[in-house]
Amino acid sequence: MAETALIVIRMRWFVLTVLSVLGAVLFLPFLKAVARGGISLGQESVFTIIVTVLSALSIWAGLRFADQAGLPMPLLRRIEGVSPVVADTRHSASEALLSAVILGLIFGLGGAVFLHILHAPPLPGSLPARLASSLFAAVNLESVIHLLIMSATVRFTRRVWLGVAVAAVAFVAFHASGVAGLPAPVIMASLTVNGAIGILLGVMYARYGIEAVMLAHAVAHLLTVGLG
Fold first, then answer.
1. Cα–Cα distance, 6 to 63 (Å, whole number)
2. Between vectors from CA 48 to CA 20 and to CA 228, what angle results, nearest 5°?
3. Stretch 45-64: mean pLDDT, rounded?
4. 47 with 26: CB under 8 angstroms?
5. Measured CA distances, 33 to 92, 115, 126 (Å)
6. How many CA atoms are closer than 13 Å to the CA of 81, on its beta-carbon side?
7. pLDDT of residue 26
8. Rounded CA gap, 159 and 57, in Å?
9. d(Cα 35, Cα 38) in Å, to the nearest integer?
10. C-beta of residue 48 within 8 angstroms of C-beta of residue 58
11. What's the rounded Cα separation, in Å, for the pair 150 and 168?
12. Measured between alpha carbons, how far is 48 from 88 in angstroms, rounded to an integer?
């Protein structure tokens, strides 16, 4: 994958950072449910600030690394009004978005069925609170795992497959905290499924772009928390 010259990232950074702020704020009701309401206004403010700063820095660095690695980003690069890189022209935007929705539906429905089969405990929080957390999963989490970690790995190793693998490990590590304390079979099954999802999302990034990854993750999260 040929390295490309640095291109403008201001508008892409702004759009994704605004979405990350919304993601952090909308995640608060779910976070309070997980903590059984034991979170003060000050703690909510600190959480929002920390998540926003980390997301903003991850987005800035991730966009730079993605451009240098030549990873696709067809919709977001249009915002800057610059010529697309070669990877952006390999697949149409409609193809990328359709693939993302289909994969998200498969992940989401599979996740909901998976939770029922394993008799996992009910997810905390009200349905609106769980659904509102989708933006955090799709933007804040993916800004770190795939946009930053995978892009950086591909940028410095020139190996897409290695970027996919490293991001998948990070994806599993993040979700491991959510199953701590559950029965061993549930933990193993969860880590295996999340590992497979992480790999497929990485492949999707390399093929269609980070926009497709975020959309697929959003759709999957909405279905899993809505039906699970």
1. 10
2. 70
3. 96
4. no
5. 40, 19, 8
6. 2
7. 96
8. 24
9. 5
10. no
11. 9
12. 33
